[in-house]
Specification:
By secondary structure, this protein is of the alpha+beta class. The strands form five sheets. Strands 10-9-13-14-16-15 form a six-stranded mixed sheet. It has a four-stranded mixed sheet with strand order 1-2-5-4, with helices on one face. The chain has a four-stranded antiparallel sheet with strand order 3-6-7-8.
């Protein structure tokens, strides 16, 4: 029996003596099409000659694929019997291009495995980065889009029931719902949280709001509404003119949050998140900068969207303006230091205006603290859950003096008590 001819998704090897070459073929097929099949026990012309199966045969194949193809994939390895002859079939599938084998990159051309040049590798990575959200098939093919349709209707736009999924690029080339369809569907699997902590770290969680498991566009807006509701206004009556200050610049938060959702590496199945501390807000998204996109390009707002089709939808629904002004706006307000960019994450830290103003006043001696007040403040900065009795023991100061210091810090607007005396904490 003959299995046909080798092609871009099919490779034959006579035996596992050609295991290394077979692993390279798997790598090249993954980089070309995202899937492929490799047979051991078949000649190049498709003639079945058989593969002897020993105790370690299948394990050796599995280990070679696991050890030498990066990023890792999980193959399906089967023993098949065709006309009383034993062969081994290896099926692979992967969406995390580019793949390497033995530290090098290959791509399939007809039935050949070719080295990828550095420039072609960059093009492959760039193309993968820009279209992965529409190319990757959703694990759930039973999706509904009532929330998305309603959002279009609110914005005065109507989606054609017969072809909207094609017009919005919600399907793959095989007419299967893709990853973008999944995140825009009514009941997706993505948890989008806003977590609030009492201090400057994640030790004491006060509240966690869940906005996920629904159409991403709706979740984005709900997060914006919630965070805006927490943006308190503080009034300063010290001078001759009443001065009002917001806790943080909401326009900068809005841009940071929209960018996090738009440019998130959704293929890693990790949604962006918002963390609120006593002195700042952090917005974290998955995935670093795109290939061939420098930090200078990033800070200047030069457009290079990771998810082009998602950008179009967000633009149609008036969430973004596609002018590239978001990052420059944040830089103009807070500087580049609020951005932390790594290969896997981008974190934007927006400091609270009132906290910074208070620090400045204390540093510049605009707010005078007594020695006891300074000691109490320093202790509470280390642990804002300390009670009065605990402060007495730590600082070796009488309770009366502690109470006087706390009263002074409260009157100067530096601290406030949240919750009960026993189970509450000090907020700055």
């Amino acid at each position: 029996m003959n299995l046909g001819s080798e092609n871009e998704t099919l490779e034959f090897k006579k035996s596992i003596g050609e295991l290394k070459e077979g692993v390279i073929s798997i790598c090249s097929m993954l980089n070309k099409t995202g899937y492929g099949t490799l047979y051991f026990g078949v000649k190049n012309d498709g003639t079945i000659i058989g593969q002897e199966i020993g105790v370690m045969t299948l394990k050796n194949i599995s280990q070679a694929i696991a050890n030498f193809i990066k990023p890792q994939i999980i193959p399906t390895i089967l023993v098949e019997f065709i006309e009383d002859t034993t062969i081994v079939k290896v099926e692979v599938k992967g969406d995390n291009k580019p793949y390497s084998a033995y530290g090098r990159y290959y791509i399939r051309s007809s039935d050949e495995d070719r080295d990828i040049s550095p420039e072609n590798l960059k093009q492959l990575m760039r193309r993968y980065d820009s279209d992965s959200i529409v190319r990757i098939e959703s694990n759930n093919q039973f999706l509904t889009f009532n929330q998305l349709k309603n959002l279009y209707m609110i914005n005065g736009l109507t989606l054609n029931e017969d072809n909207f999924k094609h017009n919005l690029n919600l399907v793959t080339s095989d007419n299967k719902y893709n990853l973008m369809a999944d995140i825009l569907s009514d009941n997706n699997t993505y948890s989008i949280k806003v977590a609030k902590f009492s201090g400057v770290d994640k030790i004491d969680l006060i509240k966690r709001n869940e906005y996920g498991y629904k159409c991403l566009i709706l979740a984005i807006q709900q997060v914006l509404d919630y965070v805006e509701s927490l943006n308190e206004t503080f009034v300063n009556m010290d001078g001759p003119v009443r001065k009002e200050t917001k806790l943080f610049d909401f326009s900068c938060f809005r841009e940071a949050w929209l960018n996090a959702c738009l440019h998130n590496k959704w293929s890693r199945l990790t949604p962006p998140a918002v963390y609120m501390y006593s002195n700042r807000i952090e917005i974290i998204s998955t995935g670093g900068l795109p290939i061939d996109y420098s930090e200078e390009d990033f800070y200047k707002g030069r457009s290079n969207p990771v998810n082009i089709e998602l950008q179009k939808i967000m633009g149609q629904l008036n969430l973004i303006e596609q002018t590239g002004h978001g990052v420059p706006l944040i830089v103009s307000k807070y500087g580049k230091s609020v951005f932390e960019i790594t290969d896997n994450f981008i974190t934007v830290t927006i400091p609270y205006s009132v906290v910074n103003d208070l620090k400045s006043k204390i540093t510049n001696n605009d707010i005078k603290l007594t020695k006891s007040e300074q000691k109490v403040l320093n202790a509470l900065k280390e642990d804002n859950s300390l009670t009065v009795s605990e402060l007495c023991k730590i600082l070796d100061i009488k309770q009366t003096a502690i109470n006087v210091a706390i009263k002074g810090l409260k009157e100067k607007g530096i601290i406030k008590r949240v919750g009960s005396n026993k189970e509450g904490y000090w907020d700055f």
